[in-house]
Amino acid sequence: MSEAVRSLGTYYLQTYGCQMNEYDSELISWMLEQMHYAPTDDPATADIAVFNTCCIRDNADQKVYGRLGEFKGFKRDNPNQVLAVSGCLAQKDGEEFLQRFSQVDVVVGTHNLTEVPDLVQRVQRGEGRFVRVERVGDSFSLLANPRNTHSAMVTISMGCDQWCTFCIVPYVRGKLKSRPLEQVVSEVKRVVREGRREVMLLGQNVNDYGRDLTPKKDFGDIIRALKGTPGLDRLRFMSPHPAYFTQSVIDALADNPATCGGIHLPVQSGDDEVLKRMRRKYTSAEFLDLVARMRAAIPDLSLSTDIIVGFPGETEEQFQNTLELVRQARFRNAFMFSYSPRPGTPGNLFTDQVPEEVKSDRLQRLIALQNEIAVEENRMLEGQTIEIMVEGRSKKDATRLTGRGRCGRLTHFQCEEDLTGRLARVRIQKAFVWGFQGELEACESRLGEWSLVPPAPSIPVVA
Ligand code: SAH
Ligand code: F3S
After folding, report:
1. N or C end of the chain, less CB within 10 A?
2. Model-level pTM?
3. Atom 15 (ligand 1): residue with closest C-alpha?
């Protein structure tokens, strides 16, 4: 912000949920900064507070409701604060927010984010409280202003047409809407020109991309179009659906050197009957066959996944099938969830809900197995050197830097110099469930130029 333009006040933004929400939050921050508000970490004194919310599981809802309670107190001391709730929970609860929480002034759904500045100003002028959850303005924003200097998220599609029976996303994010291929490609090229070296393509179901475009396109078209983009070192995407992972997409990924082996591929369950009731459109054998074909094509493949335990009707035997699939697929990492019934979804209406104690017992057993596998997989890399994109200082230990390998694993290493945004070669010393602790061997001294670490001691010049 130029010095001539004084800040009108501060805003506090709290983001819940997935990458898509983080992306949307970038847009909200950008809009508030255009209004000349500056970010603050202090929710009590902020002039504008925004909660960008998630409703994927009941505990996501509860977190937001709980935090809103605290804001009642803040508002008592800071009565001019404007409190806005945006995103998926806002879409789901709508008007109810205003009725339930007197401290909330603005509710904006997933399709109305660009209305935030206008509505905030109207509240400030004393025009009332507002709810906007209409499915309009489905345009892709080019305004996102990611703060991250080395990595950018680029939306390729919004919404989802899969209607998995456990999932609320299609209800709150709407139908699949793909962004034109040329727009995706030009945005990726723009962010790369601006210095971003890693791009994460975002969509609820990225490999269903383009089915709604005329002429039709597919996810492979994006990967092919981005091949050879100068400066694009790492290409990631989130999340693909196993049933839409065609051989042509696998081939396109294998053929693009920027493709990172760390791929997130949600499986949800390892039992065919449960998969069918979840409406996932693949069997466990088809999933494992896909994994084998991906491994053959992408040699550094390192899969992570999402798994739900205790979907309605899931028996112990069916849960055992999930454990068996986990043993065979050998995921590097898994996000594991206890099924949470979501209002309006078919799963919520199934009468054979699994008791909470059974779900949490299964979740613990699954986590224990997956943790063992993650450590075993990670140990195989001990002693090897991997390439890390440095993300910044470790929050727990400021003497360390932290970053990710192409495999997606988190890696910490000691280093005094701040190498944020640079690539480093790190030798893995010790493997953990979450990733690695390593030792810096070499790093880029400038973009694309490598130097060995530690640098040779300089010889004092004697006059
Ligand atoms: N396609 C999205 C999925 C979003 S939901 C994506 O891009 O990742 C993220 C994960 O939450 C899902 O893969 C699923 O494992 C889990 N999930 C979704 N609905 C759930 C529910 N009702 N209960 C428990 N977990 C759920
Ligand atoms: Fe949800 Fe299934 Fe779409 S998990 S986001 S309905 S692919």
Report:
1. C
2. 0.92
3. 306
